[in-house]
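To whoever picks this up:

The nightly regression suite flagged Prepilin-type N-terminal cleavage/methylation domain-containing protein as changed. Nothing in the input moved, so I suspect the structure step. Input below, exactly as stored in the fixture:
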Amino acid sequence: MKTSLFRNKLGFTLVEVLASITILGIIGITVGSVLANNAGITKKAGDSLSALQIANGMLRAYQKKDFTEVQQLEGTRQADIQSVLGLDTSDGISQYNAYVTVSEPTDSRLSGRLLLVKVKVETDGNPRPVEVEGYVKK
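Regenerated output under the current build:
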């Protein structure tokens, strides 16, 4: 004896249609909010990666400079990203601010032979700055 999958052979009832629309709506809202959240996270990650690349580039630029030239810059100051990296245009970097700190190393045995350079890059859209540090040799 065959049993029919649906008891009512005339079609779906109004309750079944409304239930399916409600379930699809809930699924759609959930998927939409997940996608929107992921888009925000992806943008922040992209900004952080760009800030890290800028910071690494600036640190390398300072490491290529002469020791006495870097020594004269001792202290913390805001750096012009475009001029330090030698960029032709400031397109794409206007949302970044870089700060460079040049100081003597904490180990007194290294004093006069090395300078500690810390580069901090802040992004308008990301509250956590990216920081890198390295040394300039005499």
